[in-house]
Specification:
The complex is a heterodimer of chains A (172) and B (196). By secondary structure, chain A is mainly α. Chain A is built from 7 helices and no strands. Classes of the chains: A mainly alpha (172), B alpha+beta (196). Chains A and B meet through α1, α2, α4, α5 and α7 of A and α1 of B.
């Protein structure tokens, strides 16, 4: 059934808003920034809506737009994290001391690793879609994911010491 | 530290992945999309409606222009009559009654070089049809109505010809039709009552 452009766009908002906001929030560490980023993302998506040829790639395409918007909003302080902005909900089945360990650890790893983990843990995207979202080859996604998981584990095991890799967002 | 192998595919879940996924899933609660993100274009602002509105505006303007240019029915019928008899030539009547109808003396010479003189019928009325050639202006067709008709003085361009409604020297209505405005002016000077 043919949808009007407006109906298609509204469906994107309904289907992908939550994923995009969580991703932007995890990438930026700030909900307020994430809301701005996602708003920018949807504005840009509406303006360039004709560029999306395959509807099944909508989520990866929107993530790509969001990621670029996040880069614009966050650079050069992308690596910083405002602890006050951390989500308050505790993780399930863990003690008080372990509250949000993964969240804090995620905030301390390099953005290039953070974004691949966001896609992997928030959406369980296929490698092909992650490659589309991150604008890299599928093989690169797998190797980056492996390194990102290692970095997250390292950050969890040494919570006091920041594990900031100065890797750039656009480099492997 | 790295006791679990790196995943070959993203679905190679480990206990660590399950924990990370569970914590992150609850850590960031985005809520529902805010209303301002949705687009609700009012019906009158939609592109198709605006296009239709613009088309109606153009069509309306064109219709108004056409109606403004449209001459009275008697003139339109005269123009149509002239079109069908444009190539007809000959003198099919005595010039005297024609000259009388044109408000000229019956003994006078017909103005220009007469091409066609004949009694015709337009809208059921008897009309004297004169087509004459003015050397400095071109061909002009004059319709002189036998009976009184409601025709105001006026002029315009319709159906690819210039037309003018004037009064003869004795006040009878005449319709002049020509393809060139200059010819119309010459015919008016010869036939019409002076503005004084």
């Amino acid at each position: 059934m043919l949808q009007s452009a407006e109906a298609r766009y509204n469906q994107w908002v309904r289907d992908h808003y939550r994923f995009l906001l969580r991703s932007a929030w995890a990438l930026s560490g700030s909900r307020a920034v994430a809301e701005d980023v996602v708003q920018d993302c949807f504005t840009s998506a509406w303006l360039h809506r004709d560029q999306l040829r395959e509807p099944e790639l909508a989520r990866a395409w929107l993530f790509r737009i969001m990621r670029r918007s996040a880069l614009r909003h966050l650079a050069p302080g992308f690596l910083t994290l405002d602890v006050d902005e951390l989500p308050e909900a505790p993780a399930p089945d863990i003690g008080l001391d372990d509250r949000l360990d993964v969240v804090k650890a995620l905030a301390r790893i390099a953005p290039i690793h953070r974004e691949v983990l966001v896609l992997y843990y928030f959406d369980d995207m296929s490698t092909a879609l992650m490659a589309e979202a991150l604008e890299v080859a599928p093989g690169t996604v797998l190797s980056r994911l492996a390194r990102a998981r290692d970095a997250l584990k390292a950050a969890l095991e040494s919570p006091a010491r920041p594990v900031l890799r100065l890797a750039r967002m656009r480099k492997v | 530290m790295n006791d679990s192998p790196p995943p070959n595919e993203p679905d190679d879940e480990t206990a660590f992945d399950l924990r990370a996924r569970a914590e992150l899933a609850l850590a960031y609660e985005p809520g529902q999309p805010p209303a301002y993100l949705f687009r609700h274009t009012p019906w009158f602002a939609r592109r198709a409606v605006r296009g239709l509105g613009a088309a109606l505006l153009v069509a309306g303007s064109a219709a108004i222009t056409v109606l403004a240019l449209r001459p009275p029915e008697l003139v339109r019928d005269s123009i149509e009559h002239e079109y069908y008899e444009r190539t007809l030539r000959g003198n099919f009547m005595d010039p005297a009654p024609l000259l009388t109808q044109l408000g000229l003396s019956p003994n006078q010479v017909v103005p220009g070089f007469p091409q066609l003189m004949r009694p015709c019928e337009i809208e059921g009325r008897l009309v004297y049809h004169l087509t004459t050639f003015f050397e400095r202006g071109g061909m002009v067709t004059v319709f002189a109505f036998d009976q009184s008709v409601a025709l105001k003085n006026g002029s315009g361009w319709w159906n690819n010809v210039y037309w003018q409604g004037v009064r003869s020297r004795d006040g009878k209505p005449l319709v002049l039709i020509a393809q060139q405005k200059k010819a119309l002016a010459l015919a008016r000077a010869s036939l019409a009552k002076s503005p004084t």
